[in-house]
Amino acid sequence: MKKQRLLILTLFTALLLAFTGCSQSPETKESPKEKPQTQKVSSASASGKKDRPNIKILATGGTIAGADKSKTSTTEYKSGVVGVESLIEAVPEMKDIANVSGEQIVNVGSTNIDNKILLKLTKRINKLLASDDVDGIVVTHGTDTLEETAYFLNLTVKSDKPVVVVGSMRPSTAISADGPSNLYNAVKVAGTPEAKGKGALVVLNDRIASARYVTKTNTTATDTFKSEEMGYVGTIADDIYFNNEITRRHTKDTDFSVSNLDQLPQVDIMYGYQNDGSYLFDAAVKAGAKGIVYAGSGNGSLSDAAEKGAVSAVKKGVTVVRSTRTGNGAVTPNQDYAEKDLLASNSLNPQKARILLMLALTKTDDPHKIQAYFNEY
């Protein structure tokens, strides 16, 4: 009997030790814990990518895509030689804040941006923003005419999703190139919900500006873009801070659509100066101008000779808008000029007045209606 009890006890102890050893085996107990944990990390990563905004970068060239053999060259370089994929690869940090993809529209210096390119760019943006797969647009652009393209987009994009135009004052090969930082900030702004409904924005030098109010003020300095009279919309200091609201009509709330346009009316700009004459107006009319913007002195003043040319142009069916060469301030309506249908640009500088006049002429040639556009936009 004692032998049987001893045998049973021995067998029970052996079974207990065997069971304990199996429960401590990493192959049977620890592995199942690690496998679900790995899946969870993978799932979180996929979710993070899905939660990031989808930003499309449309590249047009300019200094931000410029390059030179010398790292110290900041003025003698070739614009528009670096492609959009290289721009994206140069700032891998963008992938931490957005799902970024690129498309090359053109690759030129911004002095060669023409009406055909403006129409192509706007139509492409409108098509992309109509998709649920695109949350915002960044346009890389040369700085020389950046404000003109930005204002054109401000008037013709038919979406309240963010559209941000960005450039740089130094080429990609320069020692302290500002392009990568500007591009990163532009993607950041385009991806934030707070940028929605603010019209086309311009981002350079850690500042956010409205396309309506910003202008280039210096030939080479990195802080060249300023909104002197109206102020910046916001600033960037790691985080994004929006400070001002835009009250002028823009984007989807404008009267302008380019969806069925293949060309825009010819509008020329003339510069007022001492001893100017009427012959410049005559030349513009002869060359086919449908509109003329006069960058006059002071409050859009015309000399007697210039006024003679302007009135003659109006009588031939050309719309004439008075702007100012001063760089700041509004050109106000003047009863004497208004009676001769010489319109006022409000606070638009000559180059932006040209943009609005081109679009206005696609809708009407009535001077009263066109003046209303300048008051609203």
From TrEMBL:
The record's top EC class is hydrolase
Q: Which residues form the Asparaginase/glutaminase C-terminal domain?
A: 266-374
| Signal peptide segment | 1-25
Q: Tell me its EC number(s), please.
A: 3.5.1.1
Where along the chain is composition biased (Basic and acidic residues)? 27-37
Give the reactions, separated by semicolons, that this protein catalyses: L-asparagine + H2O = L-aspartate + NH4(+)
Q: Which Gene3D superfamilies match?
A: 3.40.50.40, L-asparaginase, N-terminal domain
Q: Where is this region: Disordered?
A: 25-52
BP GO terms, sorted = asparagine metabolic process
Q: Which residues form the L-asparaginase N-terminal domain?
A: 54-246
Active-site residue numbers: T63, T143
* Positions that bind substrate: S110, T143, D144
Aminoacyl-tRNA synthetase listed as a keyword: no
Assigned protein family: Belongs to the asparaginase 1 family.
Q: Know the name of this protein?
A: asparaginase
Organism, as annotated: Bacillus inaquosorum KCTC 13429
